Amino acid sequence: MIMARLSKQQSKAHNQALELVALDRDLTEDEKEFVLEHFQEAATATHNLDGAFFTPEPLARDLSIEVHGDRIIDLCAGIGRLAWSCRDLWGRRWNNEPARDIVCVEKNPDYVTVGKKILPEATWICADVLTVPTLGLGEFDTAISNPPFGNIARTGDAPGYTGPRFEYHVIAIASTLAQFGAFILPQASAPFRYSGAPYYSEVRDRECTKFEQQTRIQLGPGAGFDTSIYADEWRGVSPKVEVAVCDFAERAVRTETPPAPVAPASPPHKPRPVVKLHLPGDAEPSAPRAETLFDLLDEAS
Prior knowledge:
With 301 residues, this protein is of the alpha/beta class. The chain is built from eleven helices and eight strands. Helix 7 (109-118) links the parallel strand 2 and strand 3 (123-126). Helix 1 (8-22) crosses helix 2 (29-38). The termini are far apart.
């Protein structure tokens, strides 16, 4: 691994994390937390090219609130910070539920090596995320991701989307795998503004509109997290981000359900003739018909 732009203290802690990863035994929970905290993504040569910036711990914890179900897939997993936070280990033990089945997909082999020490119970797949639909991984309850942002070099397009934003390709792939998705996105790629804003508003740029039109995926704010409070928790960057979610099962219903048939037009309404009634005491009518209501009833009978 090539060290880059790290202080002496960061380098020392990073090397200690590597020593823990190299141990020929399982790590304790505290040791795993140490590795998550001090392993530096900037220590890999492809860090900037891959757009790898690990999720801050409190932001990962917030996103975990959106996760449900037993089977979870983390796309572009890094060393597993999101997956670690989404285990819900103690909650599931308290409810006497089995541990979640977690699959982590990451193309950087250095990150996968570290991730296997942090989450040995997870299934780790070292692969390009764009190949995931061909791997036959089955269906998941929730897909999660803090994907690389923007126009990152890629090997192809995700199903349905042809634009440049890598994060949208990851979401499109997630929609083929899971019932639900929760993602950390750059604020400019979300169809709303909430974090750091005085109020919630829906805002879409041209590329976001294209993504929605091509995929029929509609992202929303979910529980609504103001992620701006974590801006200083990132390493090397301070991105404006949003947590965006999508119910892919609902989207599938919208896509597959044909429009309701249009009811045939009703025949034009033919107005009925107006009958003028003359009650006792009214002026004499001009026509010699039905001078009173009683006469009209007699005629009808």
